[in-house]
Description:
Layout: H1 9-26, H2 30-43, H3 48-60, H4 64-77, H5 82-94, H6 98-111, H7 116-128, H8 132-145, H9 150-162, H10 166-179, H11 184-196, H12 200-213, H13 218-230, H14 234-247, H15 252-264, H16 268-281, H17 286-298, H18 302-314
Helix pairs in contact: 1-2, 1-3, 2-3, 3-4, 3-5, 4-5, 5-6, 5-7, 6-7, 7-8, 8-9, 9-10, 9-11, 10-11, 11-12, 11-13, 12-13, 13-14, 13-15, 14-15, 15-16, 15-17, 16-17, 17-18
Amino acid sequence: MFGWVKKNNEEEKFQKVFNxxxxxxxxxxxxxxxxxxxNALKIYPDRYELWTGKGEIESALGxxxxxxxxxxxxxxxxxxxxxxxxxxGFTYNELKNYDKxxxxxxKAIxxxxxxxxAYNNRGIVYFELQNYNKAIEDxxxxIxxxxxDAVAYHNRGLAYYKQKDYDRxxxxxxxAIxxxxxxxxAYNNRGNVYVDLQNYDKxxxxxxxxxxxxxxxxxxxxxxxxxxxxxxxYERAIExxxxAIxxxxxxxLAYLGLARVYDELKLYDKAILxxxKAIxxxKNFKEAYVGxxxxxxxxxxPEKAEEYLQKAKELGYEPEEE
Length: 322
């Protein structure tokens, strides 16, 4: 939204004020930018650019409801501003108000059917709603508009992965990596596909590349730990899960990974301890209850095993049919 421009003499004074706000915003001096924009609105209360800018600042500060009010005021003043519908849609998404987010992205697309960012953002919402077909449609439109958009290929690959369409997922992650060979998430998520395909060596290669690109990437450490566990390389698995926890000691998935390793090693007390830690961090973590059920089964304590299995089912766990 913000930019350094001069249109004509009448606008010069306004642009000077606006550019000052923009400079604060781009320097991430959000509190100062907010003070400046509030002062400017006292002088120019009907300039939609200021309301849009204020919305962006409030959003950057995490004040999403106020940002929505500001974007709505912009739309009252100028209801054909594509950027504002996109921004308000993003803010609704942050608040998990997905229906309104979709409405705003759709309005932006109605105003400009070549607006790639709105298609991508609407695709993200559909993905959150597990409507993977619609997400794929939107990501495909982004790719149609720009076939060098690495993020769109990655996002579409992730949707294909959720549908277990592994060939298409790998193709899209491959394309994303060709376009950006430092795209850590593409390596990490391609690794997840390889795990599902039980190609653990390739998976480990991808997770390792993701870690090489960012050695604080906790998800990649956790994922590589799972792959090592599948290969029964428990020592390496424990190292990776511990590294993930070192990076984030509230990372419930890593504690569950450790519990799984300890269960395999018949260190059942440690397995129970880590499952309970995962549950302490996430009371609705159904897989951790399943983990406890497995461990108590191995300890020949069927009543406790059944208790935890039932808890997992209450949370939505569906055992695979044998």
